[in-house]
Amino acid sequence: MGHLSTHVLDTAHGCPAAGMQLSLLRLDGDGATTLRRLALNADGRADGPLLDATQMAVGRYRLLFEVAPYFRARGLALPEPPFIDVVQLDFGIADAAGHYHVPLLVSPYSYSTYRGS
User: How many helices (H) does the chain have, and how many strands (E)?
Assistant: First the structure.
């Protein structure tokens, strides 16, 4: 059964990005609908799937990771504006029965992502 998950690692501190806020949106034409907004748990993960098997649908999606507010809450002094404020990751789900895992490795000055397993 398909589902969508994420995991965020804070590479500046070498730990999960506990408390980072994120939003999941579905993209439709020129618009976007917010499906979920949440804070990551102590492991840098959502407490459950971002989309479970009943919610999975083929289409285009966007994850918004609120990076600068997370690092400021950790006590880092960031410039204004910060180099990375919000990481916007647009991706597609082509198989609603598939498992899509979208990890993010992030610091105040860099990030990377990939389709995980």
Answer: 1, 8
